[in-house]
């Protein structure tokens, strides 16, 4: 693990998840490792799909690698890759999974990217907030 | 053929089987508590087959969606998964339940990784740990178990070699950057916790995370000795546990399933006596 040399970065981006305008979902400490994985990883991937113009980043990657041979995937594209049409269903799923995990009815969900920088004392400070999603039931 | 007895009537293999599946049962309880059994996933939508042919086949024939998308099938699947594990613990001499468990866990493994949108490596530990118990004959089991020991040596020593040849072990900031990459959400959301104070301390003295990183790197390298001798297996057992704790501390990643594999280094003298017994019985 982490055999590759890590790149030094100026800032770190993390996700902030707020339920019903008041409840901060602290996925970093209030959940088990596996639970956090399911709260965070699919959400991050949905953000990547949105920022990739609704195309699954994995599809773009394989298309780039295979070139003209990508046509092999055409009949199976829907089975293997996601697209922008999956995102509304994903939002409903995320609410369902979150409700099952935190045992609170989710009427509103806000997801924000927080850009943090470490100060000289090694404490992360907020530099920028970029709201990316606000879902209402 | 008589097999080596431990504490009366339980053969070494059955004792080992029970112990391993008790660990696996504990992990299934952890998955339940973590809301990550199939029925607790609430029919996930996004999938991630990555560039893995196994996952492509699974998704093309709709196995993950079929199992996770139907609540009745999902609950039945979970009951069978946990039930087969319990039956192996109760009847370790019956290979049938171990084989059923292995197939079900493999399907669970693919579904979990597919809908988690990342192929988590650590859960392979459960598949590896249960595999030797699928073997019917005693001799085959011993060979498989010893083979698993070498494979665990390979897991850690290859991690060492990757770091060695990529030169990341020479990079003084590797440790601190790994911590920041993975622990920033924790530190930001819990700035006053004791653990955050520990990380602030490490950030003030970057040489400390570097020492931790290099210590882990050397521990991984120690596993190369495991290919040539079993004299250091007690250390390898200890290092398997320590490295897992190190991953939690440095990378916020709980690889306890890989830590389970430490058992292949435990009491290898008993395993060797067992092996000798089998070869004496079947020269």
Please describe what this structure looks like:
The complex is a heterodimer of chains A (137) and B (283). By secondary structure, chain A is an alpha+beta fold. Helices cover 36% and strands 25% of the residues of chain A. Chain A is built from 4 helices and 4 strands. Chain A has helices spanning 33-51, 57-66, 77-80, 86-102, and strands at residues 12-19, 23-24, 108-118, 124-136. In chain A, strands 2-1-3-4 form a 4-stranded antiparallel beta sheet, covered by helices on one side. Chain A starts with 11 loop residues before the first strand and ends with a strand. In chain B, 69% of the residues lie in helices and 1% in strands. Chain B folds into 2 domains: 1-134, no CATH class; 151-283, no CATH class. Chain B is an all-alpha fold. Chain B has a two-stranded antiparallel sheet with strand order 1-2. Classes of the chains: A alpha+beta (137), B mainly alpha (283).
Largest sheet of chain B: 2 strands, antiparallel
First-to-last CA distance of chain A: 40 Å
Task: Give the domain tally of chain B.
Answer: 2
Strand content of chain A: 15-25%
Can you tell me the overall shape of chain B?
Answer: globular
- Lateral strand order in the biggest sheet of chain A: 2-1-3-4
Instruction: Name the quaternary structure.
Output: heterodimer
Write a concise synopsis of the structure shown.
Chain A has 137 residues and is α+β, with helices and mostly antiparallel strands.
What brief labels describe this structure?
heterodimer; A: 137 residues; alpha+beta; four-stranded antiparallel β-sheet; 4 helices; 4 strands; 36% helix; 25% strand; globular; B: 283 residues; mainly alpha; two-stranded antiparallel ribbon; 2 strands
